[in-house]
UniProtKB/TrEMBL annotation:
Domain Phosphatidic acid phosphatase type 2/haloperoxidase as annotated: residue spans: 395-503
Domain of life: Bacteria
SUPFAM superfamilies referenced in this protein's UniProt entry, alphabetically: Acid phosphatase/Vanadium-dependent haloperoxidase
SMART domains the record matches: acidPPc (SM00014)
InterPro entries: PAP2/HPO, PAP2/HPO_sf, V-haloperoxidase
Protein name: PAP2 superfamily protein
Pfam families: PAP2
Spans traversing the lipid bilayer: none
Length: 513
């Protein structure tokens, strides 16, 4: 791959016209819409956590001419007739593709909790504790590795739940209330999906369960959102209560399976004790003759998640198989060439380079690089009018690749323990601070390249622009003075390579048949 700094002119010319004028937000403005298709066979697609959609069982629904079902219809009509203006706004908010809305909730929580714990009065540091989430400091610190994992579990659980819902929808083919009773108005564009079980209820419950585990202090808020979403399903004319009950059952069971995996994936050990971190540093120094040094004041004793590289991956069996080769040794010809490049950028900061560095920074108080790419994905999901199961699939595979990319990147960071530019270049200054973990490879580059590759698989006609944005995200870290050029170029290749494992899995799930 050509080095990123040689692609500068081309990337800026293309991206400036296309991406960077787009105002990213954590809530998309969209209404219900006609799906490009309903994928009636999606119940046979291969899930990720379970072996088949039929693994989760639900009861057969009552017949549509039964007294029980007719009573449900009357109750729905009564509730719709007394709907308040606030309830109407709530119905409009959730729409007929609420996968996007729950993804937005996750992005908002990531931004809220993406705050690094500061030092104590005695200049020591305390870690967020899931057993005492109120702290201080509060749990979690939603840094990029944490964000990537939260989004992956949320999206995978949503996708598996949707497959199970689709399996039973087209097995039982119960029509939606508005199709049975003409007096029931339908608030959304109709896509003629069977209503039992409710895919919306699956989403509401599985999303609340996963996000509560990831952000325990938000339990009440998330429960309220779940209730609002469930209410919208009735008041929109989409479902009757028994549709919701079946959907909630699927959501609860899938969430339990997902959280069982999460409890044993190794994340709880990722923020290692100082002794473990020091041993990694010593091994790297003995092997390579260099070491990253944390320049924070007061010095934080351990960098960010030294053992995130040991967390269980989704699509890769052995993280070491994705670890790139050694970076240039400090003092070598290749290294000195990079020093010159970075010094030139630092001495000649242009408005365009500063804008790029800031646009892709995604630092503290934001939804992080993984969240940025979820935001991008949402725009294209809407552009191509994906239905809710296709939406869940897109987020699932993209976030699996992002998380796997992050694990591979962090394995590389703490294997090589490579110093940051600010540590090795005298009097060097950065645009956007310096993260508290080793340089090689660049997390932004890996996260972005992994996301871009999966999005290219999903939306092949848009592939060139996704890859250009990933290149620009990588460049942004060089312009900011945060990374060496080889951190970015190698990281981009690494992200693409890791993503291919996920794409290979996606190609076998039946959705492309």
């Amino acid at each position: 791959m050509k080095t990123l700094y040689l692609l500068l002119a081309v990337i800026i010319a293309v991206v400036t016209m296309t991406r960077c004028n787009m105002d990213l937000a954590t809530e998309l403005e969209y209404e219900s819409y006609a799906f490009s298709g309903i994928d009636s066979d999606a119940g046979s697609w291969k899930p990720i956590l379970i072996s088949a959609g039929s693994d989760i069982s639900v009861d057969e629904p009552t017949a549509q001419n039964s007294p029980v079902f007719l009573a449900e219809l009357e109750a729905v009509k009564s509730r719709i007739s007394s709907m308040s203006n606030d309830q109407k706004k709530n119905v409009d908010h959730w729409t007929n593709n609420a996968v996007l809305r729950w993804n937005e909730v996750a992005l908002g929580l990531i931004a809220k909790y993406n705050l690094i714990p500061g030092p104590n009065v005695d200049e020591s540091y305390s870690l967020p504790d899931p057993a005492n989430p109120a702290g201080p400091p509060v749990f979690p610190f939603a840094h990029p590795p944490y964000a990537s994992r939260a989004l992956a579990y949320l999206s995978v659980a949503q996708y598996d739940g949707m497959i199970s819902a689709w399996h039973y929808k087209f097995q039982f083919n119960r029509p939606a209330p508005y199709r049975v009773d003409s007096e029931i108005s339908h608030a959304y564009v109709s896509n003629n999906l069977p209503s039992y079980p409710s895919e919306g209820a699956v989403l509401a419950t599985v999303s609340r369960e996963i996000l509560t585990a990831m952000f325990p202090l938000e339990a009440d808020y998330l429960k309220e959102l779940e209730e609002h979403h469930l209410e919208s399903l009735i008041l929109s004319g989409e479902n009757v209560p028994s549709d919701l009950a079946a959907g909630k059952k699927i959501g609860e069971e899938i969430a339990a399976i997902a959280l069982a995996r999460a409890s044993n994936d190794g994340m709880k050990y990722s923020q290692s004790p100082k002794a473990v971190s020091d041993s990694l540093r010593k091994v790297a120094f003995d092997r390579f003759g260099w070491q990253w040094v944390n320049l924070e004041s007061p010095v934080r004793p351990v960098g960010l998640t030294p053992l995130f590289g040991k967390v269980k991956m989704w699509s890769v069996q052995n993280v070491e198989s994705t670890r790139p080769g050694m970076p240039p040794a400090p003092g070598s010809e290749a290294f000195q060439k990079d020093v010159k490049i970075l010094q030139d950028y630092a001495d000649n900061v242009t408005q365009e380079r500063r804008r790029i560095a800031n646009f892709w920074q995604d630092g503290l108080g934001t939804y992080t690089p993984p969240g940025h790419w979820n935001d991008i994905a949402g725009e294209y999901i809407l552009k191509y009018k994906m239905n809710s199961i296709r939406t869940a699939r897109a987020f699932a595979y993209m976030n699996m690749a992002i998380m796997d990319g992050g694990i591979s990147c962090w394995d590389t960071k703490y294997y090589y323990y490579y110093p940051r530019p600010i540590q090795l270049i005298k009097d060097f200054e950065t645009i956007a601070g310096t993260p508290n973990f080793p340089a090689y490879t660049s997390g932004h580059s890996v996260f972005s390249a992994a996301a871009a590759e999966v999005l290219t698989y999903l939306f092949p006609q848009e592939g060139s622009i996704f890859r250009e944005w990933a290149e620009e995200a990588a460049l942004s870290r060089i312009y900011g003075g945060i990374h060496w050029t080889f951190d970015a170029t190698v990281g981009t290749t690494q992200g693409r390579d890791v993503a291919q494992y996920t794409i290979d899995v996606a190609k076998t799930d039946g959705a492309d048949d």
